[in-house]
Amino acid sequence: xxxxxxxxxxxxxxxxxxxxxxxxxxxxxxxxxxxxxxxxxxxxxxxxxxxxxxxxxxxxxxxxxxxxxxxxxxxxxxxxxxxxxxxxxxxxxxxxxxxxxxxxxxxxxxxxxxxxxxxxxxxxxxxxxxxxxxxxxxxxxxxxxxxxxxxxxxxxxxxxxxxxxxxxxxxxxxxxxxxxxxxxxxxxxxxxxxxxxxxxxxxxxxxxxxxxxxxxxxxxxxxxxxxxxxxxxxxxxxxxxxxxxxxxxxxxxxxxxxxxxxxxxxxxxxxxxxxxxxxxxxxxxxxxxxxxxxxxxxxxxxxxxxxxxxxxxxxxxxxxxxx
Length: 323
Known about the structure:
By secondary structure, this protein is of the alpha/beta class.
């Protein structure tokens, strides 16, 4: 059963009528094929019109959609012989970040990413994609392994942010995020990062210091969530019943289109009409093509050239030319 977002209510009503007519067509002798075709055309146009002008807050809702493909969906659809490696060799295992070697279209790679889970049990198991220090230290270990064996690193980012719990802070959350970011930036192997859903705060940046940063069309990437930003800037908004998160999202410029314009990312990967959750198979195929192209662009660069390219890329972000 399809789950609709708040702004999709007109689409839901129209598609509901289509489903009713299909049931009627199957159960009776009444021929409603022409009416179904007419409504399908209207629904397709409504879907196209709606998704062509999404606000940044609406894009945030799409990026968080429960039916969006997650790390395990992309790995299952694109990779062969994936072997998940566990533990940080210091404290324990963290299932919010999953990773290991795999075969991708004839190449050996190291794939690492956040996994949110797709139902209540798996979301709890993966802590909703919010990693603890041991998750980032596992990622560092896997990146070291990739560099040793000359494997391109592909990271799939989808997290509301690093886990802010007391235990995580006691075990050095900030240090683990900083070290993972440093490892990405200094790695002598190609690094391709894709923001596939939410790219939240340092928890996302820790896996996104890449030579190529790609974003799905309706993904979001920001230093803080719109809700977190709103709670800081408008402390009394919740008490008054105001919802300032949409305003915060607009001001923060968190969409893929904004970040391409700002030079934070290199490429936007188009989603199927209506979002990645409407056609997971097509989305997975498109992302695979984009990753393959990025690896091809980087595979002949030396370790020194990769590090230099990465350094220059990130130092250039936000620079304004002097007149």
